[in-house]
Structure formats: structure tokens, C-alpha cells
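dumping this here before i forget
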Amino acid sequence: MTTPTPPRLRIAVLGAGAVGCYVGGRLAERCDVTLVARPVVLDAIAAEGLTLGRSGKPTTTVAPDLLTLASDPAAAADADVVLVTTKSHDTEGIARAAAPHLTGATVTVSLQNGVRNVERLRGILPGPVLGAVVGYNVVRTGPATYLQATSGELVVEASQVGMPFVRAAAACGLAVEQRTDIVGVQHAKLLMNLNNAVNALSGRPLKEELADRGYRRVLAQCQEEALAVFAAAGVSPARISPLPPATMVKVLRSSDSIFTTLARTALKVHPEARSSMADDLAAGRRTEIDELQGVIVELGDELDVPTPANYRIAALVRAAEEDGPEDFTAWSSAQLLEALAL
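structure:
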């Protein structure tokens, strides 16, 4: 007697950008995937397919007819799982647009930066919402080409309702781990994401920026302030890299030769990779600075913990947003160090 083939999991990706297109495209191997995105993203995929790649692996192209492409969140209506990949400031808007079309059985997974999006989604969506972290950078190298630029994995909040998604992701070759300490993981990722702003202000690729001790000193100062804020708030960031967060601060401040030796993985990035915030500034889009350095400053004010470096970096990014890409001037590491009085 043959065992019936289980139905394909239906997955909708809301706000598909670099991460959403990459993860959604990988899942299309075994799942029915709907990408909800801006027309400029969808038009490129419709014209030439969705090309995906990662280090050491040949690229593959997902044919357009293997995907459902939509600009209206209502297209998520039949999904078993919804992946939210919007920028943080779009979370509530996309959730309110999608909520009338979802049911209490729809499982939502937040693949977003920051530490506040899960609670926002839980306050709006009818079904369970799981926290998650994307542990790698995705770079867009062509109109419809997305490459995993660094090593890492998906980390998903441990829950029985999330198992169908976890199994599907693993079956599609996506490295995925379930964790019970997802809040700690999210705070650890926030520490790492404080580099998004430093990279954006530097105007350099990630690999080049991280190789400069001056930029690393700026990042280390932001992380040290964040760790003080977390301690005052009673939050312990999880260990998601070979080195504990406090040790990483010391490594960032070390000489270039020592850093290169101790952080080889951090430097194994695609030569074109930049932070998503750098892409946003270059495109004249609003950044996520309020959910990164901005969160540290806000919580520091509440707990009376000084955060001058994070405050200054946030102010510089907001000024760059107002100036627009035409008037943006990259900051050298020496200029940032002077601006932060380091």
C-alpha cells in the first residue's frame, strides 16, 4: 500500500525584498510560494525568473510560472505559513492589510530585523506568530538575482505549530535551527545589526568596512553601549557566533591582523555585499535606524544608561535620509571616530 504524498505547504512572503526573494525562491523547490512585493521586484522576476546563489554553489533559476507574484497582501489568503520580510516601519501596515485574509490557523514567521516586530504582529494577526532571525546577508546582484553573501542559518522560535515550515525549509536545503531562547537570539542579532548603520555611512562594501579598525571601533562602541542597556533591562543576548558578545567587542577593537585571524568568518562575504541600510540610503528609502541604534537610545533613556555613540550614529543616518542619495557623502573611519569623540 503506497503512502499518500503530503500536500505542498503554501507559503506567502509579505514584503519580498532581498531576504524574502531568496528564502521564498529556495522554498519554491518543494512549496507553493507566493511573493508579495513591489511591482519593480515582481516585474524583474516575471521577465527573467528568480536567480539564486550562495558561496561555492552554482546559481539556479526559479521559473516565473513556479511562483505566484502579487502586489496585494490579499494574495496570502490561502497560505499555511506567512513570512513577513518587510522593513520594520512597514510591519503594522502590511499586517493590517493581510489580517482580514488570514485565519487563526495561519502561522506567521517574522524574518525581520529588530526586536519589536513579533509583538506588533501578534497584536494584529489572528494566528500564531513566531520570532525568527536570518543569520546571513543577502545581496541583490541583478534585477532578479539574489545571492547569500555570508554563512549562517535561519533561527526560528521553537514551537509545534512552526514544525511544518521548519521541515519544509530543511527539505529545500535551507539551514534552519529551532531555539527556545529566540528573544536572546534577536538581541544578539541586534548587536550585529548595529553595523548596518556604520556600513551605510562608510559607503563601502561590508568586507572593506570590516577590514578597517576605525569603523570597527565605532561599531564596538555602539555594541558596548547596547550591552550595558541590555544588562540594565535584564536581557541576555544569546551566543550566535563562535565568540560571546562581550568578547566580540574586544575583538572588534583589536588590530587588523588579530581581527582578521579571529574573525575569518566575518570577512567571508561577497565582495559586493553591503548592509540593507546602505541599499536604502542609495535608493532614497527610509531606513530601519529607529529599530537598531534608535532602540538602544530609546531604551537607554528609559533606564538612564548613556548611549552617546548610538545617538550620534542614528542622527547621522537620519540626516543622510533627509539629504537624499544625491547629496550623500561617505564618512571615513577617522571622521566617524571624531564625530563620536573616540
